[in-house]
């Protein structure tokens, strides 16, 4: 089977496993750049064919690596002239935390299922975490009151997340905890983040208004379980 390349992360991990890179001094740092293609209908402002730049750190579970990726991304964007940036950040915890959180999230949304949009009614049974990605106004108030993943973190997950936030503070990087920020794929763990740019809304006459809008520039997260999905005997 042949498919157009949708992303880099799986390809980088597959190459790491197949070429025995786990035998090299760890961690390993990678970057990738080039054309990618979306299969789903693109959302407003997105293209089916696009270019993407990726950064990866493989071979370490230390929290400093989460913060270093964020620091590097912010440095690149600042050097390119981006201003008014802030990090939205959250933690998915480990596999056990995620199971407990997903159970509570599903239970909460089932109570309101008749008031949700059609997509979210389907997500309850297919991919509950995607409920928190919904942009439909019908679901906005339910998302705001939904359970927060950080309230279901175990001891080690709390420690990991606290360390990441402390590193960001020491680096002078502004952040805000966003309880709605998740990743729907099962291999994501612990830290997930997005870089948000704020700018003034322009009216029909081309003038700035007092209203601000937020634009997601980029994002990422830790994915400890991807290696096992691709055939590795252990987490990477």
Walk me through what this model shows.
The protein has 236 residues and is α+β, with helices and mostly antiparallel strands. Helices cover 34% and strands 25% of the residues. It has seven helices and six strands. It has helices at 9-18, 63-79, 95-110, 118-126, 137-144, 155-170, 226-229, and strands at 28-37, 49-58, 85-91, 175-177, 189-202, 208-222. The strands form two sheets. A four-stranded mixed β-sheet has the order 4-3-5-6. The chain has a two-stranded antiparallel sheet with strand order 1-2. The mean pLDDT is 92.
List the helices and strands and how they pair.
Blueprint: H1 9-18, E1 28-37, E2 49-58, H2 63-79, E3 85-91, H3 95-110, H4 118-126, H5 137-144, H6 155-170, E4 175-177, E5 189-202, E6 208-222, H7 226-229
Give the tally of β-strands.
6
Radius of gyration: 19 Å
Shape: globular
Q: What oligomeric assembly is this protein in? A: single chain
- Biggest beta sheet summary: 4 strands, mixed
For the termini, the CA-CA separation is: 27 Å
Helix content: 25-40%
Q: Kindly state the mean pLDDT as a whole number?
A: 92
